[in-house]
Every structure is written in structure tokens, then in C-alpha cells.
Amino acid sequence: MLTRWERAFLGDLFEILLPRGGHPRLPLGAADMPLVPFAERWLLEAPADVRVGFRVALRVLAWAPLLTLSGIRPLRALEPDARIAVLERLSRHRLYLLRELPLLVKTVACTGYCAHPAVREGIGLPDHVEGPPRWLEELDTGGPRTVERP
Which of 39, 30, 13, 15 is closest to 119 using CA atoms? Predict the structure, then answer.
């Protein structure tokens, strides 16, 4: 459903938002789980206007440095700290529509991330009553299922 560019860019965004080792109780990051396939599955279930809006959001976010006066390079060409700074500036933009674009992507990322059994264990939430979510079982890549505690 997503193009190759959209999948790659979305993977980059997810890794910016949910980095590996971002918190001691959450050593896993977006790169450790199938969040891009989750987003594709989520988009299949979403209404058409949401699908269009999400895809437009990706393109706007790709060129967010122009909107935040951070340069003329696309977001992927910036260093990791500069990427985070651009997304933070965009989330404070005076235009509501632009402010909400990072939130849309964060919502999708965190919905998939927080459903993962290893993340739920890391933040002290009970496992799913009926086992892992169906989408995770269908997309399971054999990655980590639990969190190793220090």
C-alpha cells in the first residue's frame, strides 16, 4: 500500500520518535519491531480521507525543514539531533494543521509500539488478555518478545 519511499521515510520517522534505548525500561525502539507494516495495516483499516491525509503528512514532514526555516534540505538529510529539532519546531508552528502533522505520525507509531508485548512488559502493563494483538502475530518477524531487565 505504501510506496517504497513512504515505507523508508516512515521507518526513519518512527526511529526518530522511538529510538532504541530511549529509556532504561524500554530498550527496544521502532527499529526492533514491525511498526511500518503495522502502519500499513492501520491505513488499510482507516477511512479514505485519513489515508490521504497521512500520505500528505509524510510529504510535508519530509520537507519540514523548509517550513521551520531550518534549511533547504529534506528531513532525512539532516543529522539526528537536527531532525528532532525540526519536528519539535513544527509541533509549535503557528498554523494548527502543521502543528498536528508530527502528532499524527506519533499517534500511529505509539499505537503499534505500546501494543507490543515487550513494551507492555517494560512499562508494567499486563499482557493482552487474548495474547498479542492479531496484527503482531500476522507480522511477527521473530523479534524480541520480552524485555531484558538490567
Answer: 30
